[in-house]
Amino acid sequence: MRKLFGKIHRWISIPLGIILSVICFSGATLVFEKEITQWLNPHIYKVSIPEKGAALLTPSELVACLKTQVADSLRLSALQYGGTADEPIMVTFQNAGKKNLSVNPYTGEVNGWTKSYPFFQTMRKLHRWLLNPPPQKGASSVGKMIVGISTLLMVVILVSGLVIWWPRSRKALRNRLQVSCTKGWRRFWYDSHVALGFYSTLFLLVMALTGLTWSFGWYRSFAYGLFGGTPSSSAHASTSSSQPVPHGAHTKGKTKTKTDYTAWDKAFQHVQTQYSDYASLRIEKNKIQVNQGNYLRRTDTVEFNPANGEPTRVISSAETPRSQKLKGWFYAFHTGSWGGTYTKVLYFLAAFIGGVLPLSGYYLWWKKKRRATR
After folding, report:
1. Tell me, what's the pLDDT at 76?
2. Which pLDDT does position 297 carry in this prediction?
3. Structure pTM?
4. Would you list the domain boundaries of the chain?
C-alpha cells in the first residue's frame, strides 16, 4: 500500500510541481496584502485623534463636506465608519470601481483614494487564474481550469504524502519530526521535505479544499450542501430579487430620487446606541450593516425607512442564509483571517513551505535518478 501511494505521489507531483509552487508562493504573498498596503499608506488608513470628546461627523455633515471636495459626477453609494477612534470613514461611489475615498471622520477632510498595488494584482491573477482571468465574473478560462485541477490533485498529493510519511516506529517518528542541518545538503532537503511537509499538511489541505469552491460549481454545491447550505437557491434568490425593469426606469429613478441624508443621521444614531462595540458600520440607501468585530464576518443588518430614518427591521447574523455564511467562512479559512494575525502568520509559513515542497521534491528525485545512472 505504501509503495502504491508513493507511485501516485510521484506521478502527480512531478508534472504539477512547478504549477503548485506558483500557486502556493503567490498565495503566500497575498496573506498580508491588506496589512502591507495600510502600512505603506498610513495617511489613508489612519487619522489623528483630536482632543478628548470630539464627536464623529454625522452622514449628512460628511456629505456636505464632500460636496466641496469631490467632483459632482461621483455618485455616493455607501459610508463605512470604523470601530476605533483612529480609523477614517471609507466612502464608496457607484462609478468609482473598487476604490474607496478615505475621509477624516472629525473634520471631513479627504485623505485620498485607497491603494491597490500592481504587484498584488498580478499575484492575485497568478494565484487564481495563472494570469489568464475569465472574460467576466463567474465565467471559465484555461488558467482557472488549470488552477482548479492542480488544486484538486494537490489534495491527492498531500494525502498520499501523509501515508508515505507515517512512521513505523517511535524512533522513525522522532526522525521525521526534525530537520538535520549537520549531515549534508541532501539530508537537509530530505528532512525539510518530510518534516516541514508534515507540519504544513493540515493548513495546505484547508487552503486547497476551501479554494476549490471558487474553481468548480459542482464542488461548491457539494461543499455547501455538506454543511447545510444551498448555493443554487441563494443564487436563484439573488437573481429573482433583481427583476428586470422597463427600459429607462433606472435613469428615471436617478433623476427624480434624491437621498435624504438626515434620515441616515437618525438611523446612524439609533444603531450607535444599540451597538456600543462594533468593528465597522456600513450605511447604504436603506440599511446599515454592523460588523460585530470577529474574524468570521458576523454581521447584523438594520433596515430603515429612507424617508425618516426609522428602523423597520433587524436581520441578525443568526438569520443570515446558511449559504451566505458559508461563503464568508470558506473565505476566512482559505485566507487564514479566521484567527487574526496569528493564523495569518501560520498560513503564510504553510503556503511558503507548500511552494518549497515541490522544489525540494524535484531535487530529491533528481539526486535519486542521478545515483541510479551511475
Report:
1. 95
2. 67
3. 0.87
4. 2-34+122-215+341-373
